[in-house]
Specification:
single chain, alpha/beta, D-Maltodextrin-Binding Protein, domain 2, 2 domains, 3-stranded antiparallel β-sheet, 13 strands, globular
C-alpha cells in the first residue's frame, strides 16, 4: 500500500522567474542580518553632543574641545539627568547638520529653528535671542525704521545665512542683497559697493574685531528682526525623551539671568584668546607694545558695548509685519 505521508518531490523544475525571486529574497534577508550585526546602536554609546565649530561666543572649537554658551548649557542641563554624554567637535557646521539628519549626532547645542530643520530636528525652547542687525560704513548711515527703508539700496550678507522665514522671503522679493564671505562683505562696505550689511549681532561683533574694522562701521539703532538659539535633538536619537526636562531647566536658567551672564563671560574668554594671539603675531615691536598697552589698560571693549546695547535694553525691532 502506498505511503500516505509526506511526499518528497525530486527533479521538479522551478520556473526561472520564481527561482530568481527566491534568490533575491534570500540575499536581502542576509544583508539585513549582516547590517544589524555590524552596525552599533546609537543608544549603546554615550550621547554625542556637538555644534557649529566657528560661531563664538555661542560655540566654537578651542583645541580639541567645543566651548561657548551652547556647550556650557548642554553640560549644565545634561549632568543632572545622569546620562552618559560626550561634547566634542564633529566636523563643519554643514557636516554636523547632515549627521543630525542621519542620527549619527544626538544633540546640537545651538541652532536657529526653521521649517526645513524641523523635518529632522526636535528643538528645545529658545535660550538666547540673536538680533539681526544692519550695519553701514561709518558716516554713511541712513534712516532705517522698517524693511522698506532698505529698498533701492545695495545690501550684502554672509553666504548661506538665514534670517528667519519671513525676512528671508522679503529679501528675496524686494531687496537687492549679495551673499558672500564675511571678509568680502566688510570690504564692500568699506569700498562703497554695498550700502548696508545684514548680519546676526554676535558674528557682527566678532568679525568686525577679527577684521579690525570696529572703528569703521556703525550699527543701525533698530535690529531688522530677531532669531533665537535653541538646542536640538536629532529625530533619530533615542535621547529625544529628555527634551521636556531640558526645557524645564532652560526656563529656570533664563529666569535667573544665568544665560545672559554666561554670554558675557564666554565673549570675554574668546576676546582674551584673540588679544593674546594678536599680541603674539604682531609684526613689529611697536605694534606689539601698543597691543600690550591696550590689553593691560583694560579699556572698555566696543564689543561688550554693542552687545549690551541690544541685549540689555528692550529695543523694538523693525516693522515688517505689513509687508
Amino acid at each position: 500500500m502506498p505511503d500516505q505521508g509526506v511526499r518528497v518531490v525530486t527533479n521538479t523544475k522551478v520556473p526561472g522567474a520564481v527561482a530568481m525571486q527566491y534568490l533575491k529574497t534570500l540575499v536581502v534577508l542576509c544583508c539585513a542580518v549582516f547590517l544589524f550585526i555590524i552596525t552599533p546602536a546609537r543608544a549603546a554609546g554615550p550621547m554625542l553632543v556637538t555644534g557649529n565649530p566657528e560661531a563664538p561666543p555661542i560655540v566654537w572649537k578651542k583645541g580639541d574641545r567645543l566651548v561657548g554658551i551652547g556647550p556650557w548649557l548642554a553640560e549644565t542641563t545634561l549632568k543632572p539627568l545622569g546620562v552618559a554624554y560626550v561634547i566634542r567637535p564633529d566636523g563643519t557646521w554643514a557636516e554636523v547638520q547632515e549627521k543630525a539628519k542621519s542620527g549619527a549626532v544626538d544633540l546640537i547645542v545651538s541652532a536657529y529653528r526653521n521649517r526645513e530643520r524641523e523635518t529632522y530636528l526636535d528643538f528645545s525652547e529658545p535660550y538666547l535671542e540673536s538680533p539681526v542687525v544692519v550695519i553701514t560704513k561709518k558716516g554713511n548711515g541712513f534712516v532705517c525704521n522698517c524693511w522698506t527703508d532698505l529698498v533701492g539700496k545695495k545690501g550684502v550678507a554672509h553666504t548661506g545665512e538665514s534670517f528667519g522665514d519671513k525676512f528671508d522671503a522679503y529679501i528675496k522679493a524686494r531687496l537687492d542683497v549679495t551673499y558672500t564671505t564675511y571678509n568680502r562683505a566688510f570690504e564692500m562696505l568699506g569700498e562703497g559697493t554695498a550700502d548696508y550689511m545684514i548680519i546676526d549681532l554676535y558674528p557682527a561683533v566678532i568679525y568686525s574685531k577679527l577684521l579690525q574694522v570696529e572703528d569703521r562701521i556703525e550699527f543701525m539703532d533698530k535690529p531688522a528682526t530677531v532669531q533665537y538659539f535653541c538646542m536640538a535633538f536629532s529625530r533619530k536619537s533615542p535621547h529625544r525623551k529628555l527634551l521636556p526636562e531640558i526645557n524645564r531647566q532652560i526656563r529656570e536658567l533664563k529666569k535667573k539671568g544665568a544665560i545672559k551672564k554666561m554670554l558675557i563671560a564666554q565673549y570675554k574668554s574668546w576676546k582674551k584668546t584673540f588679544d593674546q594671539r594678536r599680541l603674539f603675531y604682531a609684526r613689529s615691536q611697536i605694534k606689539a607694545k601698543q597691543a600690550q598697552q591696550q590689553f593691560d589698560a583694560g579699556a572698555r571693549d566696543r564689543g561688550l558695548d554693542t552687545m549690551a546695547r541690544f541685549i540689555e535694553r528692550d529695543i523694538p525691532y523693525m516693522d515688517g509685519a505689513s509687508f
